Amino acid sequence: MNPIPAPRKPMKLNPLSANPLVSILIPSYNQGQFIGDTIDSILQQDYRPIKIHVVDGASTDGTLDVLKSYGKIPELEWVSAPDKGVVDAVNKGFELLEGDICGIQSSDDMYLPGTIRSVVELFQQHEAAGLVYGDTVKVDSDGNEILRHHTGDFSLENLFKLKTWIPQPSAFFRREMLETCGGWNEAIPYAPDTDLWIRMAFRAQVIKSADFLSQRRMHDEQRDTQGEKIIRDYCLMIDQSPDIAASSPQIQRAARASKYLMKIRYNPTGSDWRNAWNRFRAGQISPELRDISGLLHDLLLPARRVLSAVKQTIAKPAANRHNKSSAPCSKP
């Protein structure tokens, strides 16, 4: 399933049934230590009917043993075969999805209790909604909470200005949206979820839940650690999007500025001066993003680090002299 060329007119969605089937897709590869928590977080939801589809890329760790341990639970189906990566796995999974409401859950992330029921209620309250999402809680590899932060309300402008974002673990969509938008784009393997959410947002209402809906596990093997590739694919997505090209000048400015904001967020070099430049460029393109205090902070931070290092260097000899002078005299 590839992206469908756009732009297209907004969709008119079919009415939901009283108890719609919710299908969850889990692309998987060598996450055997985590995938059981992911599946359990779905099976333990207080909403039915649900269906879980695991598309595994022929894992070589303990993933298949975990999947087999669930036996023949009718709510869980899984396949394991070589694929070309997560984008290929997700697109294969899209062909399997049933029901009216769908989600994509990473094999190392988890839903919070009550998430699916609350999402179904939001879709039922907002008949024009094609996409519903909420915030996510960051946890460490052991599931201990690191951070929870409420992002801003949804609008395309807020999305491009990074005042809100649509975390994949907390996003749900009407299956009909795939018929109009297509699947993940293989040309941008490090930004395919964001690309799909943007295509959906141009065609249907997006509702942001006030709740935290998922736990997002932070560890060294995450794709989020690939900052340069994420920036590359995000910028390519913005430049090639026919939806953005056909949007209002205000949205176009925000989208172009977002390329520089993403370079600040992921900053593969760690350079404060590079952050300052990217912040300046974002403000040039979209005046609403001008941030003088942030710019000054980025420019002055290297100088502060140098002064702090000099201060510590000067302080060390003084401390050593003090220690020598205050040491007790040895007895003759």
UniProtKB/TrEMBL annotation:
<keyword id="KW-0808">Transferase</keyword>
<protein>
    <submittedName>
        <fullName>Glycosyltransferase involved in cell wall biosynthesis</fullName>
    </submittedName>
</protein>
<dbReference type="Pfam" id="PF00535">
    <property type="entry name" value="Glycos_transf_2"/>
</dbReference>
<feature type="domain" description="Glycosyltransferase 2-like">
    <location>
        <begin position="23"/>
        <end position="178"/>
    </location>
</feature>
<dbReference type="GO" id="GO:0016758">
    <property type="term" value="F:hexosyltransferase activity"/>
</dbReference>
<dbReference type="InterPro" id="IPR029044">
    <property type="entry name" value="Nucleotide-diphossugar_trans"/>
</dbReference>
<dbReference type="InterPro" id="IPR001173">
    <property type="entry name" value="Glyco_trans_2-like"/>
</dbReference>
